[in-house]
Each structure stands twice: as structure tokens, then as C-alpha cells.
Amino acid sequence: MTDTITMQVSRYRPEQETAPTVQEYEVPLRGDWVVLDGLNYIKDHQDGTLSYRWSCRMGICGSCGMTVNGEPKLTCATFLTDYKLGPVRVEPLSNFPVIRDLVVEIGDFLRKLPRVMPWIVRDTDKPTTDGEYLQTPAEQDAYKQYSMCINCMLCYSACPVYGLDPHFIGPAAIALAQRYNLDSRDHGAADRLEVLTHPDGVWGCTFVGECTSACPKDVDPAGAIQRYKLSAAMQSIKAFVLPRSAR
Amino acid sequence: MSASPVYTEFHPRWYRKRMRTLWWLHRRSYLVFALRELSCVFIAWFVIFLLLLVHAIGAGSRDYHRFLDWAANPVVIAVNIVAFLFVVLHAITWFSLAPKAIVVRARGRRVPSTYIAGANYLAWAVVSAVVAWLILRT
User: Fold this and answer.
1) Closest residue to A227, CB basis, from B15, B33, B101
2) Pairing with A160, which of A1, A19, A152, A171 sits 20 to 30 Å away (CA)?
3) In this predicted complex, what is the ipTM?
4) Going from the N-terminus, what domains does chain A have, and what CATH number goes with each?
């Protein structure tokens, strides 16, 4: 007999209910199955109406973030056997509006992200015939950790500041701003300053640290934010103390 | 297929879950966060207490002794003990934040966070010792 595990899945069908309900499914408990495999089994064999996002199944696309037993997780990297006493509760990511079942509305994050200009900003571009912008391994190490972000939004789901104040620009956007600020090829730090030092920027963070705990890629957004706070404070002091030419 | 596709007019109603009133009790880090937010009240209290002390010293010996009598009131002592605990919580948060904010590289490697935090605690101990010496030497 195959072992099974109960999955308690949050359902929200706006055409027939005003608030989410919980539906239970029994799925096989296999050693190599992750929560996403359980959801796919439900979708394929038990209930084709279940809605959720997923794509790569290998922790790269950042689509399958959900709340598993109260914790924000990538469901493709969360094994069912870690919950083998069961049941496994699967809910949509917290702090986002729910569109249907496990699908959340991510427009807020997608509108915030370009505000920090997460791309290389150059004062002047050299012609492509001059080749690449070269970088030493040490220069790459300066930002590499922050470049691992996959925009999965688990950090937004874990952040109580974002939950309480949706205007807060949020952990991933700040970490990505730092990823480019610390890049030796980038000249955009001054352009990002206004968004990041706005009251809805880094100063909204009170170092809860849950974003870093939730991050599946070890990006450490909390560290990125505290680092930027120090840079911003130093910038303000320099602007106050030094003449314009010396800043 | 000749028929053009028919799109439904249905626009889903999003479900917005509000954070529960007692959300901050559900996780230790959230509780510490809420306590840290609350600590600002006690830090403000310490500032007021200090200003009252300075004012009493400036107003002369009688006012100063009246202030000392008031400060010895068990209620004021209790409030100050609670305020002190909140200030310690705030300070410890700062020291654990420091290694995140200060990234120092030496010989091509990042200086371990324990060194940065340790330097902060050491500086705290030295400053505290100097202040204690200044107060207690008479």
C-alpha cells in the first residue's frame, strides 16, 4: 500500500464564494515529491479546477511561491516528506490579494520593481565594437549574492512592514537596487537614491529579518537594506558637510 | 473556425486578507519587532527624565533634591527599570544590525560579522566603564 498524505489546500472561487475555504485531498507520499508535485497530482487526477502558478520546477522561475504550513516557501523546493505526519496546509502567499485559489495578484510588486531601475545605468555607453565591460572576480563578488534574486516574492510575504503598509517598496526591490549599485559597471546609484531614501523606501524597514529567513536563494535582503541605510546616511552627512565637488 | 472568440465579462473579485490584530504574537521575530516599535515610547521617557534632571540641577540644590526624592519613588523606579530593558533591547538590535550594515573587506575577504558585532560590544563596554568611572569616582 502506498503511503499518502493529506493536503489542505486553500480554495477561493470568486464566482461562488466571498472568502477562501479549505479543501482536503489525499495524495501519494513519495520521497522525491515536493509540494508542487502534490498539487500537480491533484490537478491531474482529482480536481482539474485547482488554480496555482508554476513553471520551471527547479527554483529558478520564482512562480510557485505559496504559504506551506504558515511559512512562505517555493513549493518546488519543499518536500512533502518533511511534513510526513501531515496534513500539509497550502495557502496563497500572504500580503497579496488573492485572485483565485493559490494565485495572487502581483501587480504591486511588478510596478515597484522598475522604480529602482534594476538594470545597469551608464553615464555614457561605449560602442559595442569596443567589447564588454570587464570586471574582476572581486568586483563581481561585491554584488553577486544580490543577483541571485528570482523575484519569487517570498520576502514580501514574510515582511510584516509590507503587510501593514503596502506602500513600502519592499525587500526584493531594495536588494535588487543594491545589486546594481554595487556593480562596478553601473553609474545609477544617484538615480536610485530618491526612491530608496523616500519614506516608503529603506527607512520603512525595521530589521525584522524575516525576509532573509524566507529567501530561498540566500540573497539576504535584510542585509542589503541595512547596508543601504548606512550608505544613504553617509551620503546625507557628506551632502551636509562637504562642498559639492568633494562628495 | 469561423466564429470569433467570445470573451467573458467576468472580472474576478480579489480577496484581500487583513492582518489579524494579534499577528505579532504568531512569530518570535514579529513579537520582537512589535516590542522594538514600542521601545520608542520608553526611549522618549528616558529623554524627558534626563531633561527634567538637567532642569532640576540648573534650578538649584532644593529642586535637585526634590527631583531625587521623586526619582526614588517605587513607581518611577519601576518605570525606569522597564525603560532600561527596552533600551537594552534596542541597543542589542543595533549591535546585531551593525554587521549587516558594515561590510569590511580585508585581504580580499569579508571580515566575519562576529568581529564587527564584537567591536561594537567592546566599544559599548568601554564607554560604559568610562561613564561609570566618571560617576563613581567621587
Assistant:
1) B101
2) A19
3) 0.83
4) 4-104 (3.10.20.30), 107-246 (1.10.1060.10)
